[in-house]
Design a protein that fits this description.
The protein is of the alpha+beta class. It folds into 2 domains: about 1-135, Roll (Nuclear Transport Factor 2, Chain: A); about 135-240, no CATH class. It has 11 helices and 7 strands. A 5-stranded mixed beta sheet has the order 1-2-5-4-3. A hairpin with a 2-residue loop joins strand 3 and strand 4. The protein is globular, with a radius of gyration of 19 Å.
Length: about 250
């Protein structure tokens, strides 16, 4: 509920709505893959216009600090605010909300779109039009995350999208991935991605990442090797170049 209210507060602000866009795993589960089968405490945002971020940060903190308290701020390739607070419903437990702004990628391959998002509860009610990306572009950046980092949640998210969204344009998703890589000055062949992915599948830490985040029902149904085959066959196999000539496929 805190995360949902934060989204409404952010995108109900005219300045923030015009300067930021919503993406990442939370965007997938709040807008496209409901109900959410895994826990998320992060809001990933993108600064859609190049320039100083100060005015955006002032507006963002005005919207959030008054009910979440003062955050810890981290600066790197983007800006991150980390809010820590306690639940209002017993038993009282410590909670965290991370709001991260990518300040480098000021574009959308297929343009930005608006999605109506509403919260209606005894604790809070509100509505906003979230500025975001099409499903295929969200998944294209998720495919990039699968290549660039070692977090099993990326595999889970991509496999679930294939399962829940038969209308998904896979070719468009792969094209988005390739465009994001191109804009960062990188090229990835099918063989390179396959080798990268298979090495991750051999690392227990890669799959251990997702287990604590899944709901009990989703956790009991998730088959990592089956998910890997789906992602390999539907996404990675569509990349340019020949297949990887290494070890045999996971069975």
């Amino acid at each position: 509920m805190v995360l949902s209210r934060a989204l409404v507060e952010i995108f109900a602000d005219p300045l923030l709505n015009s300067r930021l866009a919503f993406r990442g795993g939370t965007a997938l589960y709040k807008l496209h893959l409901l109900p959410a089968p895994r826990y998320s405490e992060d809001i990933d945002l993108v600064q859609t216009e190049a320039g100083a971020i100060g005015q955006v940060m002032t507006a963002l903190r005005f919207r959030l600090d008054q009910w979440l308290g003062e955050p810890r701020r981290k600066q790197g390739q983007g800006v991150t605010l980390i809010y820590r607070f306690e639940s209002e419903i017993p038993p009282v437990t410590p909670l965290r909300l991370k709001v991260e702004i990518n300040t480098r990628e000021h574009f959308a391959v297929h343009g930005f779109e608006k999605r109506k998002f509403a919260v209606d509860s005894p604790w809070y009610s509100g509505t906003a039009n979230l500025r975001t990306y099409c499903l295929e572009e969200l998944l294209g950046t998720k495919l990039r995350a699968l290549y660039q980092r070692k977090e099993g949640r990326d595999l889970f998210d991509l496999a679930l999208a294939l399962e829940r969204r038969p209308d998904l344009d896979v070719e468009k998703t792969v094209a988005c991935f390739l465009e994001y890589m191109r804009r960062s000055g990188a090229q990835v062949s099918r063989a390179e991605f396959e080798a990268n992915f298979r090495s991750k599948m051999d690392d227990p830490a890669f799959l251990a990442d997702i287990v604590p985040l899944l709901s009990p029902n989703a956790g009991s149904q998730f088959e990592a090797k089956r998910a890997a085959e789906q992602v390999l066959d539907h996404f990675i196999a569509r990349l340019p170049g020949e297949p990887w000539k290494g070890v045999t496929r996971h069975r």
